[in-house]
Design brief:
- This protein starts with a helix and ends with a helix.
- By secondary structure, it is mainly α.
- The chain is built from 6 helices and no strands.
- It has one domain (4-158).
- It has helices at residues 4-25, 31-51, 63-84, 89-115, 117-120, 126-158.
- 81% of the residues lie in helices and 0% in strands.
């Protein structure tokens, strides 16, 4: 953490990971779920906005900035689903928030691997770091698609 911005990003990511884990385990639709969910959304907003301001890897807008924009759009979509309550809003909310958490975990995994000494020696250039990050994002995308579809009916039925 070489900057205040980097520390804010890291701290917000840790808060979002912790709150997201509680939300995954928590019964859906309760006042507690809503309160923790607000904290998760605020943390994710900080994570994504600060990510858009960090340029130490390449010095310019790159793939991780694009993923931050996607993450931001997904979180906003999950909140919009609640606020607008259109047809299948709960389904939309579930998928948006679940995918935001999958993306957060993928980013955390990529960041952790890039900083573990045995891996960081292999990730010694921006190109390799981007390759590692995109590979992990792809892996989490496949795993997320498999897991979230299987959990959907159980999660949505517990929210009613």
């Amino acid at each position: 953490m070489s900057s205040t911005l980097g520390m804010a990003h890291f701290t917000a990511a840790l808060v979002a990971i912790a709150l997201g884990a509680v939300l995954v385990c928590e019964r859906k639709g309760t006042p507690t779920h809503r309160m923790i969910g607000v904290g998760y959304v605020l943390a994710m907003l900080v994570v994504n906005v600060t990510a858009l301001c960090l340029y130490s890897l390449t010095g310019r807008f790159g793939p991780f900035h694009a993923l931050a924009l996607v993450s931001l759009a997904i979180v906003i979509g999950g909140i919009a689903a609640i606020l607008l309550r259109r047809e299948r809003w709960l389904h939309t909310h579930y998928y948006c928030m679940a995918w935001s958490y999958v993306g957060l975990l993928a980013a955390a995994c990529a960041e952790a691997l890039a900083r573990v000494p045995i891996f960081s020696a292999a990730v010694n250039s921006p190109t390799r770091a981007i390759g590692l990050g995109m590979g992990i994002a792809g892996l989490f995308g496949v795993l997320g698609a498999l897991v979230l579809a299987r959990l959907e009916s159980r999660v949505l039925s517990s929210a009613k």
